[in-house]
Amino acid sequence: MCIVSRSIRKRTKTLGFVPKFLSQTQASDLAKFKQDLKSAKEVVVLSGAGISAESGIPTFRGNDGLWRKLSCPDLSKPSVFRDDPGLVWEFYHFRREMVLKTKPNAGHIAIAQYEARHKNDKKVTVVTQNFDGLHAKAGSSRVIELHGNLFKTRCTKCNEVLVNTDSPICPALAGQGSPTSNKLTSDIAEKDLPHCKKPDCNGLLRPHIVWFGETLEPAIVEQTDAVISKCNVCLVVGTSSLVFPAAAYPSVMAAGGTIVAEFNLEPTLISSTKFDYYFEGPSSVTLPEALNE
Ligand code: BJW
Ligand code: ZN
């Protein structure tokens, strides 16, 4: 399958305006991108939910991104957890159980294999908005998780972060969290939800996920700033580029001279103005084509 690509940097620079998307397939852009990648020493893959869609995990803003008719901004707020932690835990229990059954797809694997092939001549870092752990499962060794991880908990009292892959995470959640139920409140009592095991704490645990209005972990932001400031080529994969600060990184990199290539099913709002390359199609197809030498 040949991927549709559009090279836009030269035109925006010389003409001073953004042309309409070019209509014909330009296979030569793929060759040019591969040439750019060849000379890169530091490569960043900035990924979003689209890369995991073909592993069976719904995207946030796609057609199947609703849970009980609620969208991600309806649920991903600290106030919702304060009001009904049981409801939020049901939502995360459903997602944990679903993700436990998934596997990395050809897109995740192409990135991990590219890193392995270039372990002596390039630094490849994945900066992901996803919290499904599939990049690490595929074998990527440098993964920065901007928005946390479904299989980590954080104590609301002592802030301890722990990995937890228990299924279910607590007995009260067994069989709960159906996405098709009409219930918008939970019957699960707070005392039956996961709690901190430190005897002197016993605080309520929450998913270690960054919700809207919460700041990203300072150490994560620092690590990300360090890799994006040195990056030569960035692949922006499967993100709508609507959520900040992640949405700002490609523009920051492009402004600093990084070559930026977008891989998506459809152009995003910023792709026509900010990026050098646009490769259209499912990332399980476009990434192997772009990364396999
Ligand atoms: C495929 C494909 C295939 C499909 N192949 N492609 C500056 C301006 C305006 C607002 C703000 C700002 N700075 C901060 C804010 C507020 C807010 C924000 O960004 N709001 C916007 C919505 C406007 N940001 C925050 O609150 C952040 N905190 C912060 O900045 O703190 C400081 C601060 C606070 C308040 C004010 C100002 C400063 C935290 C954001 C945390 C987001 N967390 C979530 C949690 C979800 C929880 C859950 O569901 O469990 O993270 S939101 C959700 O969106 C999730 C994702 O990681 C994130 C990004 O989504 P993503 O990955 O892009 O997915 P989709 O679904 O949107 O797109 C999928 C794409 O894939 C599409 O393009 C498809 O076409 C494509 N695709 N199949 C290739 N096979
Ligand atoms: Zn604790």
Automatic annotation (TrEMBL):
Catalytic residues identified in the record: 147 (proton acceptor)
Entry annotated with the keyword Transport: no
A Pfam family recorded for this sequence: SIR2
Cofactor note: Binds 1 zinc ion per subunit.
Keywords per UniProt: Metal-binding, Mitochondrion, NAD, Transferase, Zinc
Cofactor(s) required for function per UniProt: Zn(2+)
Places the protein is found: Mitochondrion
Stated role: NAD-dependent lysine demalonylase, desuccinylase and deglutarylase that specifically removes malonyl, succinyl and glutaryl groups on target proteins. Has weak NAD-dependent protein deacetylase activity; however this activity may not be physiologically relevant in vivo.
UniProt protein name: NAD-dependent protein deacylase
Classification of source organism: Eukaryota, Metazoa, Ecdysozoa, Arthropoda, Hexapoda
